[in-house]
Amino acid sequence: MRTSGYSVTFKVENGAGAEGFAAPGESLFDAAQNAGVVIDAPCSGNGTCGKCRLKLLSGEAEGGDSGARHISAAEYAAGWRLACATTPRSDVAVQVSASSLAWQNRIRITDFSGERERAVFAELRDNLKS
Ligand code: FES
Question: Is residue 79 included in any domain, yes or no?
Fold first, then answer.
């Protein structure tokens, strides 16, 4: 049971979606990872690649660029943010950008809650170790 932080609703262009959560200080990128929403992030969330773009649809958030390195002032005003550099300040809803979709421009929502899924994941992990 959470005691603080904010809910993050992810909306995907193909109509899919996911509900996530950002603990205090966590970024939208962290919330996406926690929710199983795979956002393309070649720099692993360091704020350097500019690939993790998403659009803030509602709510308040802090940061997300616009020293115009990756997000122009006009884009920022329209709600575009870098997920890894944005910290929610309220419950938020975001749309994941097509350019941020992982797996060849498709978003993949993983669910490891089932027994079968956990077994597949464990097998893959074990194969990587050997
Ligand atoms: S993951 Fe590279 S800028 Fe956000």
Answer: yes
What is the number of domains present in the chain?
Answer: 1
Residue span of the structural domain in which 26 resides: 6-129
Domain annotation covers residue 17: yes
From 23-27, 46-50, 76-80, the region with the lowest mean pLDDT: 46-50
Residues 6+ apart with CB under 8 A from 125: none
Which of 40, 75, 84, 101 for a ligand 1 pocket mutation test, highest count of atoms within 8 Å of Cβ? 84
- Picking from 89, 73, 4, the residue whose alpha carbon sits closest to that of residue 81 is 73
Query: Is 1 part of a structural domain of the chain?
Result: no
- Measured from CB, residues less than 6 Å from any atom of ligand 1 are 41, 43, 45-52, 82-84
Q: What is the pLDDT of residue 113?
A: 60
Q: Is residue 21 a part of any domain in this protein? A: yes
Q: What token pair was written down for 77?
A: 């005003």
Distance CA(69)–CA(60), nearest Å, equals: 22
Q: CA angle 26-27-29, nearest 5°?
A: 125
